[in-house]
Amino acid sequence: MRILLVEDDPTVRSFIVKGLRETGHVVEEADNGKDGLFLAVSENFDIVILDRMLPGGIDGLRILETLRAQNNAMPVLLLSALADVDERVAGLKAGGDDYMTKPFAFSELLARVEALARRGSAEQAPQTRLVVADLEMDLLSRTVKRGNEKIDLQPREFRLLEFLMRHAGQVVTRTMLLERVWDYHFDPQTNVIDVHVSRLRQKVDKPFDTALIHTIRNAGYILRAE
Amino acid sequence: MTPKFAARFPRAWLWWQRAWRFRSAGLGFSLAYGLIFALSAALFLSLLWWHTNGLLERQVEQAVDADARSLAEHWMQDGLPGLIRTIQDRLDLDVEDEALYLLVGPNGKILAGNMPAWPTRVKRIDRYYSQTILRAGTRATSEVHAYVFPGGFRLLVGRDVRGRDLLRRLLTDTFLWAWLMVTALAIGGAWVVRGIFRRILGSIARTTAAIARGDMRERMPIVGNEVDLVAHTVNDMLDRIARLMDGVKQVSNAIAHDLRTPITRARTGLEDASLHAKTTEEMHAAIDRAVADLDHVTAVFEALMRIAQIEAGARRAAFEMCDLTKPLHDMAELYEATAEERGIHLAADLPDHLAFYGDARLIQQGVANLLDNAIKFAPSDTMITLKASTEDSQVRISVSDQGPGMSDEDLSRASERFFRADAARNTPGAGLGLSLVQAVAQLHSGRLLLESRHPGLRAALLLPVTQGKKSITQASSDAHPVES
Lengths: 226, 484
What we know:
Helix content of chain A: 40-55%
Number of helices of chain A: 8
Shape of chain A: elongated
Distance between the termini of chain A: 24 Å
Largest sheet of chain B: 5 strands, antiparallel
Catalytic activity (chain B): ATP + protein L-histidine = ADP + protein N-phospho-L-histidine
CATH architecture of the largest domain in chain A: 3-Layer(aba) Sandwich
Strand order of the largest sheet of chain B: 2-1-5-4-3
Structural class of chain A: alpha/beta
Helix content of chain B: 55-70%
CATH architecture of the largest domain in chain B: 2-Layer Sandwich
Protein name (chain B): histidine kinase
Radius of gyration of chain A: 19 Å
Strand order of the largest sheet of chain A: 2-1-3-4-5
Largest sheet of chain A: 5 strands, parallel
Radius of gyration of chain B: 48 Å
Largest interface: A-B, 22 and 32 residues
Number of strands of chain A: 12
Pfam families (chain B): HAMP, HATPase_c
CATH class of the largest domain in chain B: Alpha Beta
CATH topology of the largest domain in chain B: Beta-Lactamase
Number of domains of chain A: 2
Number of strands of chain B: 12
Shape of chain B: rod-shaped
CATH superfamily of the largest domain in chain A: Response regulator
CATH topology of the largest domain in chain A: Rossmann fold
Structural class of chain B: alpha+beta
Number of helices of chain B: 11
GO molecular function, one term (chain B): phosphorelay sensor kinase activity
Oligomer: heterodimer
Order of helices and strands of chain A: EHEHEHEHEHEEEEHEHHEE
Main location (chain B): membrane
């Protein structure tokens, strides 16, 4: 993937660039708003990672607004130290697709970047069926089958599995699950998400030979067929 | 009027303006009071004076009129000689020497009476004349009225009004003195009022000055009058400022202690690894530990920021009418799994509808913290109940557990930032959960109640529903315009 990173702090920038290159992405970087805006409008990227507070007179929100004003639909992930709910809302309202606050774990950033980049292709056509290996989900009748066996899920478990299946093959972090499945934007201190995932595993993986839901250490979960 | 004055005397105008600006409100108040008092006293006394005076005057006129009427009757009955005789009789009988008579013939000859001559001024018969006369060598004022009889005879009837004048003068003097006294009293009263005013403002000024100097314990005295309205408001405000200041102090203490500890740990670990690590594994392990420590720092920091933000009331903009049932249900559902994993049963007792004005997300977060605590401390095979109800226009959300509970001493300190009961030292957490719940409650003008239940603890959020009533009615009236 071609990724544009606009970030003024050199340490953070080189950390992200290194991490993304290691995972096989092509990264362009800018250390101020002006260059960032220039790169963003002149070239095509699969995703833009944008810091909000930038030197050079143009901050992240301005870049984002300019892009959206030009009908540029490139996925943009805002990465900012401004963590207030109001700031998040401002960022998302300006056209951001996701919002991450500093400090952050690279695994979280990577998971979100990949989820964002794939989203464009995955969610364009309205889907009625999701299939991963022998696991099938019918979104219309809201039924789940694995092999020939029907799996009974609680509504929330269904949404959790749906999210995992929509992002099959990608790492999904606990925070992402909390935000997207439960719509909570705060950090519960206990391992609430882990427990829900392990419950889901009991139903989806336990009775079968192969496990589909895998735990990625220090990051989150991944649903994949192997 | 003032601009003309200003144009004519620019310097005087300037002086007046400057003087006015420094004039105290108390002085203005008391001056106005004194002025109004003196003016009303003057008005009242003048009215009294006019009235009494008029009464006296009318009395004289009535007496003269009655006298003249009876004389006319004598004229009708006995003719001129009878009239002259009657006048003589009357003059003889007039002990007080007040009556004045004069009867003149058509040729101007005096026929009877005690006046030396017909006053030249007296020409008309339809009004009273005030006449200065000489009587027994002294000047006196009199009130006279002229009457005309057939045949050209003219009669003058009058009264010596020396007595009335004396009385009038006495009255005037008395009233004048009375007015002076009243004015003096008004000025004195104004002074007293000003003093009271100064004292009231003085106590506010003293208190706020003390606060400004940094003595946060100073409060306005409650004296039991209307000033208490201000005093209460000011005191409430000061309490809140003090709380915020305390918060800042606590946060800096906490940063000194609770944040430095993990930072120190991370630093030590990294330095140790850098100096002594033999293998890559050891290095990685040390780094991971440091990252975990720093994550903890971040979490504490974020919780603090959040509490500070909530306490400052900035989130009130997000208040709206909402139904709390679903958010609370979701919360119970989210934590149910965790509770079950620990062998704790989580029961939710929620009404079908729970109308509330506020920020549902914050309430959710507060409840999440309460549930978190309950699950953390409750032993297995016990029950945690999340209960919500509306009573007396209050939403009451309670989380009760059957855990070890807290001692009374700990209860009173539980919502302080970074406070951790001794029993909780070994559990994960930073001691910020209840602070946040407390802040959420306060933002919604509510309270957090912690009660021991032996066994267990009940944490209840009491939130008034009514604070949003005005906006509810406003919103509904906006949505449905009244049709006539």
